[in-house]
Amino acid sequence: MQSLFFVSPALVLCGGSLAVLMMGLWIQSHGAWLGVSLASLLAAGGLFASMIGMPAQEAFAGMLVFDSFGLFFSLFAIVVGFFVFVLSSKSQEIRSDRRSEYYSIVLALLSGLVFMGISNHLLMVYLAIETVSILSYTLAGFNRERQASVEASLKYVVYGSMASAIMVFGMSLLYGYTGSLEITDLRQFFTQQDSAQIPLALWIGVLMVFAGIGYKISAAPMHMWTPDVYEGAPTPVSALLSVGPKAAGFALLIRFFVTGFSQPIEGTEAISQLANIPVGFHIIGPFDWPKFLLVSSIFTMFMGNLAALGQVSVKRILAYSSIAHAGYILMGASTQTHEGIVAIVFYLTIYCLMNLGAFWVASKMEDATGGDQLRNFKGLAQTQPFYAVAMAIFLFSLIGAPPFAGFIGKFYLFKAVVARELYGFAILAAINSVISLYYYAKILRAIFLDAPEMDHASEKAKLAFNCGVSKVFIALLVVPNVILGIYWEPVFQLSMRVVNFYVGGQIPQ
Hints:
The protein is mainly α and 509 residues long. The chain has helices spanning 2-26, 30-50, 68-89, 99-118, 122-140, 147-178, 183-191, 200-217, 226-232, 235-260, 289-308, 314-334, 338-369, 374-377, 380-383, 385-399, 405-419, 423-448, 459-465, 468-483, 489-498; strands at 57-59, 64-66, 262-263, 270-272, 282-283, 500-502. Strand 1 (57-59) and strand 2 form a beta hairpin. Helix 8 runs antiparallel to helix 10 and helix 12 runs antiparallel to helix 13.
């Protein structure tokens, strides 16, 4: 029964998904659909909140683990879902007669994100990723009358199927040699083996599993689906995909490598951050995963930033920006320290705020002008100063410019890298930040310096821009992007507290 209690929030999300879907057959009320969806989120969030402070432990015979790390990313998914529901409810890209199906799919997807954050069994990992992936394919092609949306969905299916197949084959190699699919059992197995006797095929399996996870976080070379899907999908869906699955993917990546292929500190039952020092993990076996993630980080940053330079679609720019930010976040994982993992959690929190905000403004522009090209944004400061200033704040935060929150997030990532004396790595990351200035500046130039080319005063534009709910929520995203650039200590302290991994053994009492 205790195991059922731990999964009850995910069951609430699934129940809400079914309820909204069934309501769509009999009740033609958008307010009712949205109300039940938000109520399901609040109920799931309340159940997760009731688990705060509970000791780290496993459920369902070790297939799931409940620790502060998994709890944080479960609540993270709930918060992202709340913002996405509000954004979607005011978006003209989601047809009114399909909103019940849309809300139902998003709720089911959020339940998959929850399981990605708490899975300790490779079978559960696969099921969670596939749940998120299949529902993401559907959402990407939700506007089936639009050719770009259908094309985005098809490309997503092709790339996703390939990544899933590679990942499953890698899991079979791990199971074939270790005899277990539990991540905590992998760590115990490797501590008892002579690293010189571990076959190369096993480490190839690890790389294959990383390919499946890397596909969710848009790490190069598994990133190729990202720009086409973000551009073709409805903008609220792009906002969801850019934050939710990416954060859950990083949670899974960290749990897989840190819990499965690292030694806990001083033989304790949990790996946790106890002090402001860069404590390192002890790598198990000959596979140096931090160096591998370092190379992946560099490759991902350069691929995202360089490819974004020639883009004219704001959604494609934000897509390549998302790839580059995956590279920045991988910096923290490659440091092999608790400090780096804390920096990842802190940066993902800030990244959620600034990326959701940027996509929210892009959604309003697409509703108002029918496109997301740079020319659609020209002269926005003259016609809609609120949206212009808000977009500028989000972009400056994405750049990592002071005094905005993105600067503090990048500061801690760079601090973790420098603490490990990886100076060359830090220089390459800094160069990438400079490169990103160009394509972000293109958007800012169009907004503030160019003359308008689109009619921002048409009836359609007024309907989109004069939405009070959107203005309120954009303001709610703007405020922390400013405040956290000045006073960030509470959020950073929270990030330190949640970096706590259950690694098996006797369940703590």
